[in-house]
Amino acid sequence: MKISTKGRYALRLMLDLALEENQIVRLKDVARRQEISMKYLEQIISVFQKCGYVKSLRGPGGGYMLAKKPKEYTVGMILRQIEGSLAPVACLEDEENSCSRSRECVTLRFWQMLYEAINGVVDQVTLEDLVEWEKEIRGTADYSI
């Protein structure tokens, strides 16, 4: 499993919005701070609007904000919206496991363990955690961009 550039940028976008909790954030400002093109951010924010992860305000002073509190978003939720399944192999992507070799596939057990480990990490870490880690890096408990 390899997270795409779009997935990495999506996480940075959501973190940026989380750092400005309860404030409208202009996409232009996110692009500047995160060094991501506006075109890329527009594609990503569109996905998050459609699934209800962000709210938008149009017009002068408009922008975006999280629809919920940072603690209510996991990294897994965010990545799955952009990346789809985080399964390391295709045979784990469908619940019925329609692979004809699944009964005698010894490696399937390993792939399932890896998939569970991935999900265990991405579903445990929240945007709130990332905000706290950002504050630790910046050396302040009252960090805002």
Residue share in helix? 40-55%
CATH class descriptor: Mainly Alpha
Query: Which sequence of strands runs across the widest sheet?
Result: 1-2
Unreliable spans are none
Task: Supply the helix-strand structural class.
Answer: mainly alpha
CATH topology: Arc Repressor Mutant, subunit A
Mean pLDDT, nearest integer? Answer: 91
Biggest β-sheet strands, sense, barrel: 2 strands, antiparallel
Level-2 CATH architecture: Orthogonal Bundle
Q: How many E strands? A: 2
SSE topology:
Layout: H1 5-19, H2 27-34, H3 38-50, E1 54-57, E2 63-66, H4 75-83, H5 106-122, H6 127-138
Antiparallel strand pairs: 1-2
Helix pairs in contact: 1-3, 1-4, 1-6
Structural description of this entry:
The chain has 145 residues and is mainly alpha-helical. The protein has a single domain, classed as Arc Repressor Mutant, subunit A (Orthogonal Bundle), CATH 1.10.10.10. The protein is 51% helix and 6% strand. The chain has helices at 5-19, 27-34, 38-50, 75-83, 106-122, 127-138; strands spanning 54-57, 63-66. Strand 1 and strand 2 (63-66) form a beta hairpin. The two termini are 32 Å apart. This is RrF2 family transcriptional regulator. It comes from Petralouisia muris.
